[in-house]
Amino acid sequence: MNGSNVEIDWEAARNANRQNWDDRVPLHEAAYGLDAYDEPTHISDVVSEDLPVLNRFVRGGTLAELDVCHLQCHIGTDTISLARAGAIVTGVDFSEPALQAAEALANRVGVSATWVQTDVLDASNVVSGDFDIVYTSIGTICWLADLDRWAAQIVALLRPGGTFFIRDGHPALLALDEGAQELTTRYPYFGDGRAQQWDDESTYAGDGKVAHPRTYEWPHPLSEILGSLLRAGLRLLHFDEGRTLPWQFSPRMVEVSGGYAWPEAERNLIPCTFTIVARRD
Question: Ranges for the Methyltransferase type domain (predicted)?
Answer without folding.
Answer: 71-164
